[in-house]
Amino acid sequence: MGENIVMNTLVQFSKLHGIGNDFIVIDASQLSGVVNRSKLSIGLCDRQTGIGADGVLLLSKSSHQLKMEVINSDGSEPEMCGNGLRVAALWMHKQGWADCRNFDIQTGAGELSVEIGNDGNVTIDMGMAKLNPREIGMSSSVQGDSFINQPIGGGLKGSAVSMGNPHLIIQVSDFARLNLEDDGRLLETHPFFPLKTNVHFVQIVNRRSIVQKTWERGAGATLACGTGACASVVAMVEQGLVEREVHVELPGGNLTIKYEKTGHVFMTGPAEFVFTGSISLPVFLES
């Protein structure tokens, strides 16, 4: 399949962030034709030659559904993004796409419910945490009904959780010994995860507070990862190390995660507008 730049189109966008995890938000109806989404995101997210972001959110609405699609800064498409969903919810509400503060958004991980609080925080019912290696997308070499605090090589132990996308969580005692880029990049491609994984390093402060640093699949080191915060709390609860409602401190800000006994996970945190604008984009059509 060849590709040709057949036209330029002026696209309106908004820049938003959820505790430092930043996104370019576009009403997908502006992108007519068969757009090469990967090249679109790589170009827009470049922090030197583009707008700059961790990813692009393509949002759409129909008579029966609101939808969010995520494209990482490297052009890959994850199943889900928690900070992105809070951002999408705020944008949709401000645009009048939802006429109340409680509504549902279709994602790659299914339809999820959001609630926009009067305090500016957005709460999301993230659905059920998945612990079975088959549901997480781990290699067939991984046996058992769950993968919690198990050896992953190099003397390390990790836990795997899916929040619609895969996460590897590693508890650390001292971040000073962590090289986030080297360690994160290596573990992202761990053979236990054929489709790669998000990687989180977690330090427990007390039973109601943890600190997390993240290497995101397809984006690298980010200031926050919402689904990762959920997965980290689930992993720590499953080991009996924290309570079911936990304050998660990330480099970009804080989230509150609640892991109910039913398996449902709720995430609460802010989303903020940065600026809006328009950009002339080359549209790539597949021939």
Care to describe what's here?
With 287 residues, the protein is α+β, with helices and mostly antiparallel strands. It folds into two domains: 3-112 and 271-286, Diaminopimelate Epimerase, Chain A, domain 1; 128-270, Diaminopimelate Epimerase, Chain A, domain 1. The chain is 17% helix and 45% strand. It has five helices and 17 strands. The chain has helices at residues 37-45, 82-94, 133-136, 180-188, 226-238; strands spanning 3-18, 21-27, 55-61, 66-72, 102-107, 110-116, 121-128, 150-153, 156-162, 166-171, 198-206, 209-216, 220-222, 245-250, 253-259, 264-270, 272-286. The strands form two sheets. Strands 5, 6, 7, 8, 9, 10, 11, 12, 13, 14, 15 and 16 form a twelve-stranded mixed beta sheet that branches. The protein has a five-stranded mixed beta sheet with strand order 4-3-2-1-17, sandwiched between helices. Strand 6 (110-116) and strand 7 (121-128) form a beta hairpin. The N and C termini lie close together (6 Å).
